[in-house]
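EI: anyone free to look at a 230-residue chain?
SC: sure, send it
EI:
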Amino acid sequence: AAALALLAAGCGDDVTAGPASSSPVAASSPVSDATAATDATTTEPSTAGPTTTDPSTTDPMTTDGPASSAPTSEDGVDAAGEALADVGTAPSEEAATGAGLSVVDVRTGRHEGFDRVVVELAGDPAGLPGWYAHYVDEPSQQGSGDPVAVEGERFLEVVVRGLGYPFDTGQEELVGSVDGQGTALVREVRAGGVFEGQAQVLVGLDAAADAPYRVTRLSDPPRVVVDVLG
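SC: here you go
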């Protein structure tokens, strides 16, 4: 009986999920930071040790899965609604800090009420990307002006700034396209190579008119995030 009492007095393991944070910054279009956090959870006493899960990695040009109805910290989005604030159809612009980044990944995802496009960058640890985003009637290549084939009816051009050439940044630059699988409006996203310190990202939308959107900036790693309402 004494041995059983000693076993029953053992302490349970605490499993705590730390808060996820993000720090988007915007200029011409007001943007609020979106954060998500989970409360600490205490398990019942158990003889088994805590269970951990290795973080998953994302291959370039991949598609994020649909979000649940609960808030999620994926790429800094609060699915409860904060990511839907301060949207519009007017051009959006933010200056870059530094010039030593390369586009290394593009991915899409569907959240409650909006599609999300994430442009991930790498290179200069102190660098923060800028952008100029606006709707265009016909997508064309920066520099040459040649037409660019992108799936969709309306086209949102996002020019990502603060970039360098791969031989300067030490990063493998991503050039290519990804389909908007599981999205409501995003049909295709095409990322072009760096040209004069900036890279063109064309978002083709299955929409009859310009859809409200917003652009934000996240760090660790640096990302330019485009949310399209619909």
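EI: The helical segments are 2-8, 166-169.
SC: 👍
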